[in-house]
Amino acid sequence: MKTSVAVVGGGQAGLSTSWYLTRDGVDHVVLEAGTAAHEWADSRWDTFTLVTPNWHCRLPGYEYDGPDPDGFMTRDEVVEWIGGYVATFGPPLREHTRVTSLVERDGGGFVLETSGPDGEQTIEADHVVLATGGYHLPIVPPWAGALDPAVHQLHSAHYRNPEQLPEGAVLVVGSGQSGAQIAEDLHLAGRQVHLALGDAPRVARTYRGRDCMTWLSDMGLYDTVVAQYPGGLAAREKTNHYVTGRDGGRDIDLRAFARDGMRLYGMLAGLDVPGGSTLTFEPTMTAALDSADATYNSICRDIDRWIESQGIEAPPPSTYEPVWTPDTDPTGLDLAGAGITSVVWAIGYRPDYRWVGVGVFDGHGRPTHTRGVTSVPGLYFLGLPWLHTWGSGRFLGIARDAEHVASCITGTTGLRGSPARTSASV
């Protein structure tokens, strides 16, 4: 089979690309290993909600039009919303079709090997858009297998609810968005929670009468190009600010959790002895809390300056004051002695492009590109955090990135306006 463009990945990024290609009459196919947007259903816990307001949910030709634009869709609502997107334009989507190999074709273009309902197939494409995201392989420490086998372990990608875990206390490792929210989920369920902190910052849910992310959007922060952000391309490695959309949205205050009985620790260092149950921690807990609060207050001050510069009437400013302060930083934890029966690893993912046989990756296996365009003609990436701006990894910024990539394809090849094929004809 031959096609002009193969889009790998049927999530919001791949579908957005397909929308523009369909609009422009470009022959293409969207290859999805599962079902459209299945990651939202398969990798989120039961009480998951978006942390961005619903009005941020905008894809090409499609946006949230429900009754609560300032609310936060649940996992199931997001799945339904994206499912509704597919129905609006009928992309040439092949579900349950996994791309197992991508290589360059002699003379230009690419060859993709796939496996799916019809068996193994070969697809030749002039252009390929890799829209599989950057969160492929769940990370766990290399020594996790040496932990006492009596302790149940799972990654945040497989966490669903407190009831799936054995009775007893739970250690959550990682304080990014997933770790902080899962720790809260367990805490609200009455479980004794121990939380190992990383270096994630935090942000207020609402400030001076509006959601902070609405303020930041008005201020143009989500339009900030990665090269112009402090630290430049290193911003792509930054951990997102923790906050929650649960129950209408609120702050996540780890100090308040500690005040109410959650046990906090610094960065997890390792296992004391193989087969044991004693973990060691760096003495970084106090510094991590202080740093997160400093970011929280810094963002609020940025909003204050914006309000003043624009002459906006708003409630008065405020500063977060700690509700709990630790006496010391704990550096050890005996899981058995603390009654901990489960560990939830929430320390992120690493990319896995081993099936891509094209030289566009750095020494850490991450794609190298400029706004999704690689050094190999015809190969593009989409849907990565900070692909181009702070908004690139959010619903709010996907359309602009997808339009840019689609315009690179149509602008350089003259494909715009050629007859489009449907999923039945490819």
UniProtKB/TrEMBL annotation:
Keyword Oxidoreductase applies: yes
Tree of life domain: Bacteria
Keywords from the UniProt entry: Oxidoreductase
InterPro entries tied to this protein: Auxin_biosynth/cation_transpt (IPR050982), CHP04046_FMN-dependent (IPR024000), FAD/NAD-bd_sf (IPR036188)
Pfam families on file: Pyr_redox_3
Species annotation: Nocardioides plantarum
Name of this protein: MSMEG_0569 family flavin-dependent oxidoreductase
